């Protein structure tokens, strides 16, 4: 594996998911609120927000559901984390 591909793969890893969680959730909420209002009419706004939060916990857009490593991880550790996550997904999809 050459240096360029290692750098590109390492760039996909989230090192500080806690910094992006609020913004990612608000973007998800803004996009999905009209759909939830159609699917579940008659709820209060807070009930819609609670429902969206539960959905966001399982969403791949959630930064905590993405591959994470510590901020001082080496390039090799980042690549190994990506390979492990990819293998885990492949295994899960094979079982279905």
UniProtKB/TrEMBL annotation:
The keyword Oxidoreductase does not apply. One of its GO terms (biological process) is transcription by RNA polymerase II. One of its GO terms (molecular function) is transcription coactivator activity. Residues 9-66 form the Coiled-coil domain. One of its GO terms (cellular component) is nucleus. InterPro entries: Ccdc124/Oxs1, Ccdc124/Oxs1_C. Keywords: Coiled coil. Belongs to the CCDC124 family. This is Coiled-coil domain-containing protein.
């Amino acid at each position: 594996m050459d240096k360029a591909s290692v750098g590109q793969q390492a760039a996909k890893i989230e090192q500080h998911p806690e910094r992006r969680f609020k913004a990612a959730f608000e973007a998800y909420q803004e996009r999905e609120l009209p759909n939830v209002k159609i699917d579940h009419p008659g709820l209060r706004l807070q009930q819609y927000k609670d429902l969206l939060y539960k959905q966001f916990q399982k969403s791949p857009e959630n930064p905590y559901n993405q591959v994470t490593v510590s901020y001082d991880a080496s390039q090799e550790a980042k690549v190994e984390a990506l390979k492990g996550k990819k293998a885990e997904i492949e295994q899960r999809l094979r079982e279905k």
